Amino acid sequence: MRPLALPVALVLAALPLVAHAKHQAPQSAQTDQKVHKVEQVADGIYCIFGQGGNIGLIVTDRHAVLIDDQYERIAPGLLAAIKTVTDKPIKYLINTHHHGDHTGANLVLEKQVMAIVAHANVRKRLETSQAKLEPAERGGLPELALGEEDSRVRARLDIHLDGTDLHLVHFGPGHTDGDVLVGIPAKHVIHMGDTFILGMLPIIDTEGGGSFEGLVAQIEVVASFLPEDSKVIPGHGAVSGKKELLRYRDFLRALQAHVKAGPGRKPKELAESFDTKAWPEWQPVSPFVTWESLFAAASGQGPGIARRP
What we know:
The protein has helices at residues 75-83, 100-103, 106-109, 120-130, 212-225, 242-261, 267-273, 291-298, and strands spanning 10-11, 37-42, 45-49, 55-59, 64-67, 90-94, 115-119, 144-146, 155-161, 164-170, 181-184, 189-191, 199-200, 231-233, 240-241, 282-283.
């Protein structure tokens, strides 16, 4: 994976000097839940499956880096799964976006890590959602933020850790307005968060700043530079490669072309006239995401998610 020549717009908060100790796992979550499965993706890189979005784990000579963390209630099980791979301290937790199935364990894990890293809009949205909570229930906000509130501004942050380089890149709005892709160039591995999903229809959270056209553009960019032998960790679904990503790109292009060929048609009409059988890799998960809700987002007529996570 070659380095990306992108303009940089970084807003860096001060790094904490010690690990956090504010939040403990709730008593109901103390029992280790055996829901996690660990799969090695490359040397020192793993994908952890469980309940929620796929988790990335990168192990360097002296540290570990975690990408997303699923739910607070199963955080003990996640930590147990990590222990099967490494005892090295987790230096950074990276959030690919703000949805709860990717950030829910921030509250527990903030005491385990040096800093939580995400796009500026992730911090903003998490902070807003926590405003109605009691002070004791708040926390787990990103302390290192890249990018700007205007999600159209591209941003990049490079992390150099023990000889391992991580590239955090925001290409613009797509699944949300705070999507961050995490590339490990030397290993030809990329974690794409929910900008790339297998098994279920793509979700365009327009209420969360997402954009169908932006998602198509993101996938086009990634497909243009990804090496042929790359491993791709999707937000949901099996670890894949460039072949699957190109298939996803073609699927998004087909959706886009179908909308443009029928201007003025309602999402229901678009869904009923689209050849869904040609794309068996992507299925609706009613009532969460349906063909109608997908075409609502693709045609700019409504949210792309039937029920928010």
